[in-house]
Amino acid sequence: xxxxxxxxxxxxxxxxxxxxxxxxxxxxxxxxxxxxxxxxxxxxxxxxxxxxxxxxxxxxxxxxxxxxxxxxxxxxxxxxxxxxxxxxxxxxxxxxxxxxxxxxxxxxxxxxxxxxxxxxxxxxxxxxxxxxxxxxxxxxxxxxxxxxxxxxxxxxxxxxxxxxxxxxxxxxxxxxxxxxxxxxxxxxxxxxxxxxxxxxxxxxxxxxxxxxxxxxxxxxxxxxxxxxxxxxxxxxxxxxxxxxxxxxxxxxxxxxxxxxxxxxxxxxxxxxxxxxxxxxxxxxxxxxxxxxxxxxxxxxxxxxxxxxxxxxxxxxxxxxxxxxxxxxxxxxxxxxxxxxxxxxxxxxxxxxxxxxxxxxxxxxxxxxxxxxxxxxxxxxxxxxxxxxxxxxxxxxxxxxxxxxxxxxxxxxxxxxxxxxxxxxxxxxxxxxxxxxxxxxxxxxxxxxxxxxxxxxxxxxxxxx
Length: 464
Fold this sequence. Notes:
Layout lengths: L1 H7 L32 H4 L3 H13 L1 H23 L3 E11 L6 H6 L14 E14 L4 H67 L5 H36 L29 H4 L1 H22 L4 E12 L12 E10 L5 H69 L5 H35 L6
Antiparallel strand pairs: 1-2, 2-3, 3-4
């Protein structure tokens, strides 16, 4: 009685942490239930060149294909766990020799037993057999059942991990695509500005001949032209690297990326419906991935706890055995069968089981924190991007007016310079400011398009 009590005694119960799913009611007071995350990515992105890139990446991206194999591994783990609580049945055959000790029970009983009249059993006796053996652990504490369910949760978590990776992949391709279009526009603006500055340089050279300016003015304009010509190569290198970043994501070697950058500045970001924060719990794959991991960790604790209880194992076998092959399948004289049940409880290795139980409990608490952190991160990402979209729209309107004002100032400065009412530095600085304002306008448009992509990802869109 004391042995059974010692074997079944459990360690002190550990406290598991309950996850907190509470989120704010809305974003900045908004209660809009429509959510852009439910839009399929092929409907969200309308540029056919971008859609083609994403479609190719979802087939060829090596990292995504590696993750898909991880899902297959998790699926096979489920199959293995499911089979653990079913009976194991095997079939086998064998042959060998058997010699009983003279003073053993079998040897003493069979010493003078004739096989045939006048013949004794030989000292070395052949033995042949064929049969089916089965073993089955009865899952009385649901240990195997919970292990299977934990494997299912981990499998579902791996699927959500794949979905989250898809959203990341799509957003990265889209952001790189808009960056590429922005670089094309900046290069075009720079080339046009170089022509304007070259014309201004020729004008200043003529002014020097007429002694209205010095060699210093000529050199200043010439240096500005050379600076922007050098800048062309820097932007060209950025274009190559951005193209190859896209090529890598798409899973192909270096090649030009097809795009139409002429209408980039006129692109209008889509109207975003953020919905309510609680929708993030069901829309974002990383949140659902953390939730499935949490479910698996809770089941792992139950499995670890069940290791302290006795396990019931049933074994059975049926077959034929004979010292002569011609009698091997003779029924019922050569028939043998067995049935046994073993009830075993851990006694010596309890410290290892305790360690496993404590570790499982700690991993469950760790999974709770990870789940709560994922929810918090998702909410903050949405809030940041909503604010970013609003501020970028205001900034873009102001920068558009700035570009218009500086473009007009460029023409005015040249006119004033020709009439000797402005010096060359005013012309030079005005052209420089106009170029930088156009670059900033393109950069702001790129940030607008990137924010549009990022809010779509933050809300949980892109994996459908």
